[in-house]
Amino acid sequence: MAIEIPQSFWLYFIFFALLLVDGLWCMLATRNLVRILIGVEILMKSVTFLLIVAGYFSGRMALAQALVITVIVIEVVVVVVVAGVILGLFRKHDSLDVENTRQMKG
Amino acid sequence: MSTFLLLVPFLAVVVLNLLPKRARVAAFAITFLVLALETAAAFVARFVAVDWSFLAPVERVLGFGLSLDHLGGLLLLCAGIVGMAALLVGRRTLAEASERFMFANLVLVALVGINGIAMVRDLFTLYVFVEVTAVATFILITLRHGGHAFEGAWKYVILSAVASVLMLSSVALFLLSVGGISLDEVKTALATPGTLTWVAIALFLCGLFVKGALVPFHGWLADAYTAAPAPVSVFMAGVVTKASGIFGLLRIASSCLGGALPGREILLVVGALSIVVGAFLALGQSNMKRMLAYSSVSQMGYIVLALGGDLRLGIVAAALHFFNHAISKSQLFANAAAIEERLGTLDMDKMGGIAARMPVTAGTTAVATLSIAGLPPLAGFWSKLLIVMALWNAKEYAFAAVAILASLVTLAYFLSLQRRVFFGKTLPEWAAVREAGAGLLVPAVALAAITVVLGIGFPFALRVLLGGGA
Amino acid sequence: MMTALLVVLVLAALWASMTTPLLRAALALALTSAMLAVVMFSLGATLAAVIELSVCAGLISVVFVSVISLTQRRPFKEYLARRRARLRRLWPLPVVLLALGIGLSFVRAPVQIALPLPATDGDVRTVLWNLRQLDLFGQILILLAGVFGVLVLFKKEAKDGD
Predict the structure, then answer these.
(1) What is the ipTM of this complex?
(2) Over 90: is that where the pLDDT of A59 sits?
(3) Which pLDDT does position B111 carry in this prediction?
(4) The pLDDT of residue A2 is above 70
(5) Which residues from chain A sit within 8 angstroms of residue B124, using beta carbons?
(6) Rounded to 10 degrees, what is the CA torsion of C48, C53, C57, C59?
(7) How many domains does chain B have?
(8) Which DSSP string do the residues of B197-215 spell out, in sequence order?
């Protein structure tokens, strides 16, 4: 694509920070398990973005892409497993409230 | 040889799943064999030079980034021994055949992950294998859908994901500051660290601390250990949490062996915090597994603390404590499994006077708890001594004092455990309790024996250890 | 142009965090992945962008939709009450993001990237297959673990009313 790419790393870092804060806030401001997972996903996107930007600015795009591909595969499996845990929690409590995960004392 | 360690458990999983349904009972035996090979491998690396040239084509594909050194051998040894113990406990406590089959498969997958962690020379590949082990462990915790299995898994899963984000950000920053993520490149970068390298290594360590449940990221450990089925608790407490967390720290520390570790003050503080917070949290527990979990947090703190002292001695001390804790803590969880099986509860306030009914369990619990508290001549005494010496050599007297004083708290909560569970008059409801079956006693006795033998024979072992180097 | 793409990316992520119906949030997440893929493509990471698009925007959305549809049970009234409380916690977010973005843009970048560029970068496929084989093995392992996960976690309970 023939679009102009700004050469300032800091610009990309700002957007990474915005995505990071968005993901964290999403995770913390909700009581719904699925939404917490969405927050986690947004965090993973932010870090994927940072990896590609790092690859761009260090000139090692091939390495960065290879890393990102592995990260995406891992991300998928983790999402599937978390979804399974959410399902298990739902079946037990019939609710998606995160308070159900705070029941163990101590 | 290193590729062998990755391939054998993997092929075992394949074989296990190709077996016809009726032959699946052999799963445990096969897994046990693999674990025995794993334990043997730790020694083969050191003493025997075997000709592995027939593996050359495979080596060329996979062996590229692997190398097995003594530190890796330590992890292999722990994984093998703890794995075998977990398997024996699982044989007794996992009733359904399907559960046992899944357990065997997942332990093998986790084993490949742990072997990978032991041998990789690259920060990103370390992350990949840590994730492999973590995912296998998540599933192991939820093996039995009952109880609080999913609650225990949830906190671990979410915090683990956050840790992954930290480690990956670190990798990105390393790409920017060093241009690569192999251990050699990181080592050169750490020699003359700039701001970017500092932030990168700090982020990576934070990720490892979350996975390893060090303070202030220890929130998930108690729930996960308590909610997991007995053999999974043994496996997790014995090797998984350590491999995913502080082993990475040990690896980075040992590759910086030239100079001092940058930021060791932070290690001292995190270590001391973990020791103290873990110990005090353990004091107030009435659930036996929960107390053991917080005790693990405390002991991990000791390992981190050791690395903040004189590095040469500190790594040996940390490695020894790593091993001792793997042996003793898995034994304690095996004892907890025995008690849970016979009494049906883990609430220590409901117990009393079990010693008369379950003497072997009581005896082995005493050995392990005293070893962790650091009493001579048990193994734990030597590792605590080395840690204090490493701190003393580096003139960190305050932290050495913290280490010693915390041992008293450790002794306190373990004595509380002993008093509540074993000593005193046998309560009427436990009058008919029998000693645990051989299946649960064999691992407990074997592990306790290792603790005693290592403790008594330590001066001899030390010569071998220091001769081999870190 | 790139800045505009990045802004849309953040807006999509913001929408995913703030929107109330879960299905819409999952859709927003898919959109975020798609935008990220576009950004990655523009930066030259073509292979990774394709995989991000197909796997994250595709596969993960399928997982989300299945989980959401399997766990929908709450009556609508409760839904609305929760929504008010949630929005109260969430409305500062866009403000914070705007402030953060503007604030950071005035900060001078504290780090200079003075890294010598490598002689040749190589092709992703070469790097992946020749240098990062262990990562590939790790991917196989984690997919294997994922399969076991599905078998263990999504097992149909015998007494489940579904």
Answers:
(1) 0.94
(2) no
(3) 92
(4) no
(5) 67, 70
(6) -80
(7) 1
(8) HHHHHHHHHHHHHHHTT-T
